[in-house]
């Protein structure tokens, strides 16, 4: 079965999406509209709503980009866990994927927030573990420079271990609240952590009871060597940045092999390529929307935006010449840099041709056409092992998401590729993931947990 998730936020995934006459305005900070998007996605039986995040207003040093506003720049928006807690009260089944950074947060506060979100949502919390891709975030945390990648991932690894330790603080039956005997809690069903590591010293226990899912579902998007290793050890699901199906399959195979090397099953890790879907009643209609949105991108932002995505200033190179060598390491978004460079080299693209191809999807896959056309492409990715699901973004909102739900979802269901109803109440149940067992308390007493 394919799993679908979509992006909240409100700008649409196309750089010109927010300018479309039928696109909503003000969505980034409008709770009613976020609720409406969540309800559309839940009507489409999506597994997850996703909100990306950073800790800075980006591109202030690049005026053209700052004014152009893409969804990946999110100059203002809701803090993700806060928004998801609000959406939990207006939805009942869809999972809530909030981004939070291990580079600038503390494990104690974050473990608490996600445990609370899981309780508030009846077991639908999901954490996008990031190490902060935007270098400028550091300046809001007292650092002039971005923390180097190796250090970020070392901290991330210890951070996740500490969170898991805190989430294991309480047995599920720790609170009998027996009015007759006067026993509120069982002191033998809680455990301190006493973690003393390189980056953190955390005593524990957590002051939130064992959450319905045991741990939130863990997502990760890192594509570098340490990023993949972190995902292989801890993540239930990973984003893939794969310009084409072969790259996607290679990434998926690599991640599944890494999971096995960490003592997990290959199927324990789910792969979600990012894609933008233009779904319409006819190919001509889909093309028309695509061209209309393309015309809303100012030509002056093409080179700066591509420069941003590949983390290299391309302004000094001829726009109708090839990209320079991009094999050098960068501290931020290495995944887009590598994928875009490989695509440009493979197809012999100039800088102009590269940005024309990349900007409509911001480096992700493009699916365009009727529901049948788009379902064919998605099925090919799924059947080839490149995708267990998709981060399926709509180019403009809300109508792009409505087309996905009203046209594409029935076609996927007709093919038996997609659920016709939610089968569980927690996100883990809907994804077919087990509830992690709490290693400190015996299973006989802890009821619902599985090994
Ligand atoms: C679909 C997707 C969503 C992402 N969301 C965020 C985000 O919300 N915040 C963030 O700091 N980084 C985000 N990233 C960046 C990744 O966390 C990661 O830093 C990036 O892919 C580079 O990989 P590396 O960290 O292994 O070099 C995202 C990446 C992808 C592909």
TrEMBL record:
<feature type="domain" description="Luciferase-like">
    <location>
        <begin position="22"/>
        <end position="386"/>
    </location>
</feature>
<keyword id="KW-0285">Flavoprotein</keyword>
<comment type="similarity">
    <text>Belongs to the NtaA/SnaA/DszA monooxygenase family.</text>
</comment>
<protein>
    <submittedName>
        <fullName>LLM class flavin-dependent oxidoreductase</fullName>
    </submittedName>
</protein>
<dbReference type="InterPro" id="IPR011251">
    <property type="entry name" value="Luciferase-like_dom"/>
</dbReference>
<dbReference type="InterPro" id="IPR036661">
    <property type="entry name" value="Luciferase-like_sf"/>
</dbReference>
<dbReference type="InterPro" id="IPR016215">
    <property type="entry name" value="NTA_MOA"/>
</dbReference>
<keyword id="KW-0560">Oxidoreductase</keyword>
<dbReference type="Pfam" id="PF00296">
    <property type="entry name" value="Bac_luciferase"/>
</dbReference>
<keyword id="KW-0288">FMN</keyword>
<keyword id="KW-0503">Monooxygenase</keyword>
<dbReference type="InterPro" id="IPR051260">
    <property type="entry name" value="Diverse_substr_monoxygenases"/>
</dbReference>
């Amino acid at each position: 079965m394919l799993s679908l998730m979509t992006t909240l936020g409100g700008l649409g995934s196309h750089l010109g999406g927010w300018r479309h006459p039928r696109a909503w305005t003000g969505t980034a900070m409008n709770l009613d509209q976020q609720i409406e998007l969540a309800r559309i996605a839940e009507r489409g039986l999506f597994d997850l709503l996703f909100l990306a995040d950073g800790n800075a207003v980006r591109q202030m040093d690049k005026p053209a980009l700052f004014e152009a506003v893409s969804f990946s720049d999110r100059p203002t928006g809701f803090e993700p866990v806060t928004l998801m807690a609000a959406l939990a009260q207006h939805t009942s089944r869809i999972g809530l994927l909030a981004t939070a950074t291990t580079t600038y947060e503390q494990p104690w506060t974050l473990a608490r927030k996600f445990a609370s979100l899981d309780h508030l949502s009846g077991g639908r919390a999901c954490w996008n573990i990031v190490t902060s891709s935007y270098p400028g975030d550091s300046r809001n945390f007292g650092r002039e420079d971005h923390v180097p990648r190796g250090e970020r991932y070392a901290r991330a690894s210890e951070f996740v271990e500490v969170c898991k330790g805190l989430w294991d603080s309480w047995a599920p039956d720790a609170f009998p609240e027996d009015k007759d005997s006067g026993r509120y809690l069982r002191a033998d069903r809680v455990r301190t952590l006493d973690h003393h590591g390189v980056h953190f010293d955390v005593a524990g226990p957590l002051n939130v009871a064992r959450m319905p899912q045991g741990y939130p579902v863990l997502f990760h998007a890192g594509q570098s060597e340490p990023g993949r290793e972190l995902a292989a050890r801890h993540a239930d699901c990973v984003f893939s940045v794969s310009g084409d199906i072969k790259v996607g399959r290679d990434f998926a195979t690599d991640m599944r092999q890494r999971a096995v090397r960490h003592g997990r099953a290959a199927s324990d890790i789910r792969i979600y390529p990012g894609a933008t879907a233009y779904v319409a009643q006819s190919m001509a209609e889909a093309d028309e929307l695509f061209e209309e949105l393309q015309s809303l991108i100012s030509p002056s932002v093409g080179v700066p935006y591509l420069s941003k995505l590949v983390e290299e200033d391309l302004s000094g190179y001829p726009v109708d010449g090839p990209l320079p060598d991009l094999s050098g390491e960068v501290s931020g978004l290495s995944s887009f840099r590598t994928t875009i460079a490989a695509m440009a080299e493979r197809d012999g693209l100039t800088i102009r041709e590269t940005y024309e191809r990349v900007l409509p999807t911001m480096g992700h896959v493009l699916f365009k056409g009727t529901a049948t056309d788009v379902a064919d492409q998605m099925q090919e990715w799924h059947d080839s092992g490149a995708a267990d699901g998709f981060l399926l973004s709509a180019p403009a909102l809300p109508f792009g998401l409505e087309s996905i739900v009203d046209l594409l979802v029935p076609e996927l269901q007709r093919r038996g590729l997609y659920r016709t109803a939610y089968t569980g109440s927690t996100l883990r149940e809907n994804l077919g993931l087990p509830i992690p067992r709490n290693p400190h308390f015996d299973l006989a007493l802890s009821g619902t947990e599985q090994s």
